[in-house]
Specification:
Blueprint (H helix, E strand, L loop, with lengths): L2 H4 L3 H14 L22 E5 L2 E9 L3 H8 L5 H15 L3 E11 L4 H18 L2 E9 L8 E11 L14 E6 L8 H11 L19 H5 L7 H13 L9 E6 L16 E4 L7 H10 L3 H7 L4 E7 L4 H9 L6 E7 L5 E3 L10
Parallel strand pairs: 3-4, 8-11
Antiparallel strand pairs: 1-2, 2-5, 3-5, 6-9, 6-10, 7-9, 8-10
């Protein structure tokens, strides 16, 4: 099985996005005006001018993970997913998330559903340290057949302090921060594997779960996306103030490992390569998906995070103190690889996992 055969073709999606971007007009805001666009490689967040600061915006949704959550009647984590998918992108450009607005679309109104979503969004805002500044709820019978949830996050950073990847050099260290599980992408393939397996969502998982407590298979699969504001925003702020484990300039790049998996690293530089020689442990739910779905290793690493939720690139000379600082706040964080000048591609300890296109 693969992601395309289950309904999502990443290559076709990429071509569609390129077509959309190519049809967009230029900004009506001229350079020097508030709101003027600020070019930034990678595309993890949109940046605009705002005086001596820069504002960063990211928008995303929960995707088809919502279908599984709705099927189980377990929506308690999806608001956290929605906020995580947005604020984690903002972190990658060096922005501190400030506020969030949500968009909820339903085929019919249900006060209980909205109450559960509200509590979940509030918990996500607490974890991300952002204000829920507003939102929109739309009841759209005939247009939507199931709950949909998306949102937009706003962040900021001082002018001149964007994290762009432009300062990357061969030999820079790659640090992996562990994921909390599948996060919020690849669920079209997850649901296809579930259908093939015949496994029951309300029963114990058919693998040894690493999560705390006796959980059902469905609960393992729905574990909310990890929010990396703590420790990554704290690291960036500490280094900017001179109180961190390295200078601000030593933080070269960050990548949120979501759809596209490790190929997201290719967004950070036009010529340099990336080698993951010591990947973080792969959680058992991914191993089960690969086995039951007969999903090849490369496809797994392109569809899922495979245990690495964020990758941070830092100067080799400061890798050890940065890792010590991060691991004290998020256990399991460690060096996973390095930047190289062997060409613009991602290579891996598994020789079948190679990416040359995002």
């Amino acid at each position: 099985m693969d992601y395309a055969s289950s309904g999502v073709d990443i290559d076709a999606e990429g071509r569609a996005v390129e077509s959309l971007i190519g049809a967009l007009g230029t900004s009506v805001r001229a350079p020097g005006q508030k709101g003027a666009p600020v070019p930034l490689p990678g595309g993890f967040g949109g940046i605009v001018e705002f005086g001596d600061s820069r504002l960063a915006l990211a928008t995303d949704g929960v995707g088809s993970k919502l279908q599984l959550a709705t099927q189980m009647g377990r929506l308690e984590g999806v608001g956290i997913d929605c906020i995580a998918m947005n604020v984690n992108d903002l972190i990658c450009v060096g922005a501190e998330p400030l506020a969030f607005v949500d968009y909820i679309a339903v085929p019919k109104t249900d006060p209980h559903v909205h109450s559960v979503l509200g509590a979940s969004l509030a918990e996500g805002c607490r974890l991300a340290r952002v204000t829920l500044a507003g939102g929109e709820t739309a009841t759209l019978p005939g247009i939507v057949t199931e709950l949909d949830l998306s949102g937009t996050a706003l962040g900021w950073f001082p002018t001149g302090h964007a994290i762009t990847g432009e300062g990357l050099e061969s030999g820079d260290a790659l640090i992996g921060l562990p994921s909390s599980g599948i996060h919020s992408n690849g669920f079209t393939l997850v649901r296809a594997v579930l259908e093939r397996s015949g496994a029951q969502l309300d029963e114990a998982p058919p693998f040894d779960s690493e999560h705390d407590g006796p959980l059902t298979l469905g609960e393992v699969l729905l574990n909310p996306t990890r929010i990396y504001v703590d420790p990554l925003v704290d690291l960036v702020l500490a280094c900017r103030s001179g109180n961190g484990p390295c200078a601000s300039a030593d933080i070269k790049a960050m990548a949120h490992i979501t759809g596209g998996g490790l190929s997201n690293l290719l967004r950070l530089h036009e010529t340099l390569g990336w080698h993951i020689d010591d990947p973080l442990p792969v959680p058992p739910e991914f191993q089960w998906i690969a086995e039951v779905g007969s999903v090849e290793s490369r496809e797994m690493h392109r569809t899922f995070n495979m245990g690495i939720g964020m990758v941070l690139a830092v100067s080799q000379s400061v890798a050890d103190p940065v890792i010590e600082w991060l691991a004290g706040r998020l256990p399991g964080t460690r060096r996973v690889g390095s930047v190289n000048d062997d060409g613009r591609r991602v290579t891996h300890a598994d020789p079948s996992v190679v990416f040359e296109d995002y």
